[in-house]
Protein 1
Amino acid sequence: MSGIILLCRAGFESDCAAEIQDKATELGIYGYCQTQPDQAYVTYHCQAEEADHIARKLALKELVFAREMFVLLSAIKLAGVEDRASAVLEALLPHQESFALAGDLRVETPDTNEANQLSKFCRKFSVPLRQTLRKAELLSNKPLAKRPLLHVMFVNSAHALTGYSYSYNQTPHVGGILRLKMPKDGPSRSTLKLDEAFQVFVPEHERDKRIQAGMKAVDLGAAPGGWTYQLVRRDMMVQAVDNGPMADSLMETGQVQHIKEDGFKFRPKRKNINWLVCDMVEKPARVGELMTSWLLEGDCQEAIFNLKLPMRQRYAAVKEYLAQITEQLQTHGTKPFEIQAKHLYHDREEITVHLRWLPKS
Ligand SMILES: C[S@@+](CC[C@H](N)C(=O)[O-])C[C@H]1O[C@@H](n2cnc3c(N)ncnc32)[C@H](O)[C@@H]1O
């Protein structure tokens, strides 16, 4: 048994499968996917060396539908097994040379209701498992950030998958899920989407520079203000464009100017907008075109926006939307740019995209 495990939102397995199939083919690897509806992960079967190559060369950050991925080493049956830590050790020992000494261990589950009930067990089990793996010298005595990460994923209480990933191509969040608390005064739940997007798309070491107090932002389709709330929280001055009403609490901050205009026609008077965000529910191609035109005309430096997903063939559609945006920026722009897209934990039937011109190095 060898291949790659990719975790995704339940219901998006076929999109995650289509994506890994496509990306692996680009790397010259021809494996096949196995998945089941709503199991929240996909197995991509290929040779062990090919799986390792994917784990090294295919950047997780470039995958839209996969939240986390690891090289699959073994599947373990645990029904009736008393010493589960020893069973995991036994399953890992024949594969030790693939990861040598692991720097840390992650015990997790796919994001399904059934498996999520095991989260508490996973946290508890990681204590004896760590000890067992350390004793056997499979795991370092203290976390080593540069060594591979060992994964033990409980699909259910009787079945676990083991594997490893490389630290430089991994998410810091268990299961690839960034859990955020809904702020008490947040005007809508979608506030969490923009909070997550800022954290996923802007690396921590660049945040102070790229997200600063006093920056100017435009929020298209802003009402009632969940996204504006995140910009205000980061001490930005916001032009909130929407015919609908904005939350009073936001207007009282003095940082928000509510503009009742069509978001497709509005443009800022001055070209000093640092962040454009857009959550208008519209045809993805139309939103993509609007966002690229803001960048191309120098109306903003960075943009974060949602693209609504179709009911079917979501990967193929996403690939096309992103290709259109890329082509526009390549054809009409004169600078290198960055495009990132992710089906975030707080997204449902949409993905979130980030665009920016890259600064001169
Ligand atoms: C999903 S809601 C936005 C929610 C908001 N991001 C939040 O967190 O509270 C979409 C908003 O887009 C607005 N909208 C749709 N089409 C628009 C347009 N052409 N111009 C301006 N606003 C538009 C709607 O009025 C609606 O308030």
Protein 2
Amino acid sequence: MGELKMPIELRTLAEHVGAEVLGIDLSKTLEPRQAEELNDAFNTHGVLLFRKQSLTPEQHIGFSRNFGSLEVHVLRQYLLTNHPEILVISNVLEDGKQIGINDAGQYWHTDLSYKEVPSKGSVLYAKRIPFSGNDKTYGDTCYVSTAAAYDALLPNEQAQLAGLKAMHRYEARYERLRQQNESRQQLTEKQKQEVPPVVHPVIRTHPYTGRRCLYVNEGFTTGIAGMSLEDSNRLLQKLFNHCTQEKFMYRHKWQVGDVLMWDNCSTQHFAIADYGIDQPRLMHRTTITGTAVQ
Ligand SMILES: [Fe+2]
């Protein structure tokens, strides 16, 4: 009979979202039972934190594959050389060129909600974190639970949202960012074809826990089907404000070596841009493929 391993040890980070996983070295291959327990913890807590990790790109990719197959991001120019599964998020310049996306996620969103089959989750590894002389760090990321946000709606509000569908458009967000950031080049026709507008239910059922989640986000949701623009904008703004309240939130203060993975159904996130170009930030992200929205 094989040796029975201790169950993984968790420390809760906030009331509705987030747990730190203690005592795991992600550079090592996980035991099948460990992977299963981590998957359960991920589905339950929405955000998992692993501190003091040191990962090669292969190890980062290998760990992420415990949870599903991996996406290749539409912005191919920011993929890690020889490792297209890794998206580079960074304000670092090399030979005068951006090595990664320098303004990623500075608005509330879930990754890849603009795809027909959105992402299950993302795994972000912190390689360099902005800091100042007194060791203060910058560039925190905030997470909210969209499941807790749904639960907090009144029954009549939940009933009003049942059956509604919303449009998600990557190109709309990209164009807004491009107006503020000259390093963002125009999307090519091929890239546009890769991310056509999609429609998803406003209320989504989590594929593993069965919890209902509010699935509209400021980043990519552009309208509610069958509503006037005015009514749609009003309802969306109300839902965005509701979801992103502090009571549903965990704010993560990054350390170099952190690996944070989050659920792209039951959470939304926002990257705080409170640092300058003289404060380097370098993160590697993998993105796990999800299942069709229901
Ligand atoms: Fe993101």
Protein 3
Amino acid sequence: MNVPASRIAVVGGGIAGMACAHYLSQRHEVTLFEANAHLGGHTATVDVELHGHRHAIDTGFIVFNDRTFSACWRSWACPRKPPK
Ligand SMILES: Cc1cc2nc3c(=O)[nH]c(=O)nc-3n(C[C@H](O)[C@H](O)[C@H](O)COP(=O)(O)OP(=O)(O)OC[C@H]3O[C@@H](n4cnc5c(N)ncnc54)[C@H](O)[C@@H]3O)c2cc1C
């Protein structure tokens, strides 16, 4: 398909906007507009200290667990427990 290059504005630098901008930019001139000072939207890794231990919490995938994503685990054939 021979689509002429266009100038495209993508509003929002979350994962959806970044993915769109990435793929569109292969053929078009893309400008990404993000209201926050950082990219990622809901997806961000935040350091939390609990009982003297520091944990890196990914706010975009905080419910990535066996109960919620059991079909994912099956389809990816991932081990259910981390190797010791
Ligand atoms: C606490 C929490 C836990 C989650 N857990 C999971 C999970 O376990 N598994 C899972 O698959 N998903 C999870 N999600 C959902 C997942 O994070 C979101 O579906 C995904 O990040 C949404 O991406 P998005 O790009 O569509 O939107 P967003 O991440 O919301 O990005 C939208 C971006 O657009 C920007 N924006 C909005 N309006 C404007 C404007 N007018 N001008 C410029 N910029 C603008 C915002 O600032 C933001 O950066 C969770 C979400 C939350 C909040």
